[in-house]
Amino acid sequence: MTFTHQALLFARDQRFRSVAGGRLRAAVASGRPAVLAVAPHRSALLLDSLPPVVARSVQVMDRETLYDAPGRMLAALHRTALTHAPSRVTVVAEPPPVRGPAPAAQEWQRLEAVLATALEDTALDLLCVHDTRTLDPGTLAAVHATHPVLIGEHGAAANHAYLGPAAHSQRPAVPEPLPVAGAVHRAEIGQSLPRLRRDLTDLGAALRLPAAQVDGLVVAVNELAANVLEHGAGKGGVALWRSHDRWVCEVFDEAGLLTDPLAGYRPADGVRPRGYGLWITRQTCDYVEICGDADGTLVRLHFLDRAEDPPARAAERLTP
After folding, report:
1. pLDDT tens by residue, 14-28
2. Strand intervals (E) in 94-232
3. Is the sign of the CA dihedral 271, 277, 281, 283 positive or negative?
4. Are residues 11 and 159 in the same domain?
5. 288 vs 266: CA distance, rounded Å
6. Closest to 146 in 3D by CA, of 5, 285, 46
7. Which domain holds residue 290?
8. Cβ distance 121 to 85 under 8 Å?
9. Do 154 and 222 fall into the same domain?
10. What's the CA gap between 7 and 121, in Å, rounded?
11. Is the peptide bond before 33 cis (omega within 30 degrees of 0)?
């Protein structure tokens, strides 16, 4: 029951249909679940090229839903593997272009890099497809660095440019700069988590944040504050402020003990108190940055603006 993570780089639509279609046909022929999450026009062309019995058996989902946020995508893949266990699941997915300022590109690269270890015990085959006609040099380099196997003209082969999680394991001292628009709202992390939750709920209501965003803020900060009290310095602070397309919340721990910027992604984290809280936090927020040094740890949470309530979690969309 080993997870596989492969990339197909293609410059011709026929090449995409041949490889991706072959994966889906093989899965359906073996009675295994098959999921397709690519650009709409590409999905339609691929399904039209498949035998009707195969096309009807493929579960099609919106790729924007699957790639909603790094932590939520990882949870979705975990959940779909568990839902269909013990069957092996085939997923063909096309990452959408990364939009927005830092840390968007870096956080998606971190997720791709850690998938091989985060999902290593799941019976799931993930094929990431990339149209090289639309990739900039930086994105192309990131694909090579984060996928252990590439699909070439002669089939799958080990990717010697793969760097793995180690390339993203160094904790930065400070987060990427973002403009601050308006006041910075602060709260202290003391011994009363219920009081902190009430204060954040009241603050969210005063700022007229959407209800779902307030809920996410309270859950995420509560998990991080619990880590500060149980595993960190026992005290710290919370700062909430507005940037141009998001709300940003920073949780500071006066101890610098959280050193892994990939914490909350790894499978073992689910059984450790600190990692479990970060696992929840990564699903609640759009992006999570872990920074700091020996003088303290800063976890920055990003809540992106949405036209409406956040879409149904990809984990729910992937289940029957």
Report:
1. 999 999 999 999 999
2. 124-131, 149-152, 155-158, 184-189
3. positive
4. yes
5. 14
6. 5
7. 184-304
8. no
9. no
10. 19
11. no
CA dist., res. 261 & res. 269, Å (int): 13
Q: What is the mean pLDDT of the chain?
A: 91
CATH number of domain containing 14: 3.40.50.300
The dihedral through the CA atoms of 270, 271, 275, 281 has a sign that is: positive
- Both tokens of 317, joined, read 């969309």
Residue appearing with tokens 């082969």 = 157
Token pair recorded at residue 102: 């830092």
* Spatial CB neighbours of 302, under 8 Å, sequence gap ≥ 6: 103, 246, 247, 248, 285, 286, 287, 288, 289
Say how far apart CA 265 and CA 52 lie, in whole Å.
38
Partners of 301 in the beta sheet?
249, 288
CATH number for the domain that contains residue 285: 3.30.565.10
SS3 293: strand
Single pTM value for the model? 0.90
Answer yes or no: is 174 within a domain: no
Q: Are strands 89-93 and 34-37 parallel, antiparallel or unpaired?
A: parallel
Q: With contact defined as beta carbons under 8 Å apart, do 300 and 250 qualify?
A: yes
For the residues of 107-147, what is the DSSP string, one character each?
HHHHHHHHHHHHTTTS-EEEEEEEEGGG--HHHHHHHHHH-
Contact between residue 122 and residue 78 where contact means Cβ atoms under 8 Å apart: yes
Per-residue pLDDT reduced to its tens digit, 92-146: 999 999 988 889 999 999 999 999 999 999 999 999 999 999 999 999 999 999 9
Query: How many other CB atoms sit within 10 Å of the CB of residue 9?
Result: 18
Largest CA distance in the chain: 62
- C-alpha span between 26 and 54 (Å, rounded): 9
Residue identified by tokens 């590109």 is 105
Q: Structural domain tally of the chain?
A: 2
φ, ψ of residue 128 in degrees (nearest 5):
-95, 125
